[in-house]
Write a structure and sequence with these properties.
With 189 residues, this protein is an alpha+beta fold. The chain has a single domain, classed as 2-Layer Sandwich (60s Ribosomal Protein L30, Chain: A), CATH 3.30.1330. Helix content is 31%, strand content 24%. The protein has five helices and six strands; from the N terminus they run αβαβααβαβββ. Bound molecules: 2-acetamido-2-deoxy-beta-D-glucopyranose (3 copies). The site of one 2-acetamido-2-deoxy-beta-D-glucopyranose has 5 residues, from loops.
Amino acid sequence: MNQGMKSSTLLISTYLLQATLAFHQTNQPSLRTTYSNKSMSKLPESANDSSESVLAERLCKYQHRDPIPSSNIFFIELGFGNDSHGQSSTKAAIRACRNSIEFNSIPSIQRLIPNGGYDNLKLDVLLAVPKKYQHDLDFDQVANVFPYGDVRFELQDGGMIAPSGIAIERLGDVGDDMVVVCASVTVGH
Ligand SMILES: *[C@@H]1O[C@H](CO)[C@@H](O)[C@H](O)[C@H]1NC(C)=O
Ligand SMILES: *[C@@H]1O[C@H](CO)[C@@H](O)[C@H](O)[C@H]1NC(C)=O
Ligand SMILES: *[C@@H]1O[C@H](CO)[C@@H](O)[C@H](O)[C@H]1NC(C)=O
């Protein structure tokens, strides 16, 4: 083998190794754990019994229907939001949801939905929130981000806690954690 062939073989092997690793990582079931009616027992270990049941109750309210079937999905949008001071997962989730939808306009939506208009629009919102900050998540406030549509929430462990480097008491900081939330918004009927 000449030098050129060796290095391209090496490149391809490296690529395949990375692809294999990525495949295995994305297939780890633990990363896809979502909290729903069926798995309430898996709610955050960090939460105590009372905060856990409060969170479960808040979530239940937004799981009154099944997820949108894939044949009825128009599109899926992703967003992220943070609260750099104050450690509010609600604020971070609100920003993540706004970020998912804020640059869109779908003027034909009323025509796309069978049997008429905005009332039958459904939104499935998956939030990835750091476990440590899930207890104060207020789904009602997050739902208000969406001007119309029947909102269904699912919660997943995720997002990120990053250091802000400074705790500013005046801004409500109890530490220097920046709370980052990711949102996936599925729009359909
Ligand atoms: C449990 O969680 C609730 C709600 O977040 C909080 O008010 C309460 O102080 C917590 N109790 C303990 C023992 O940590
Ligand atoms: C989820 O729980 C709520 C409240 O208990 C219930 O009304 C609803 O039917 C449940 N949804 C599913 C999909 O099981
Ligand atoms: C990050 O958090 C700060 C407030 O703590 C807020 O002003 C800013 O808009 C947030 N950025 C994003 C992208 O969510």
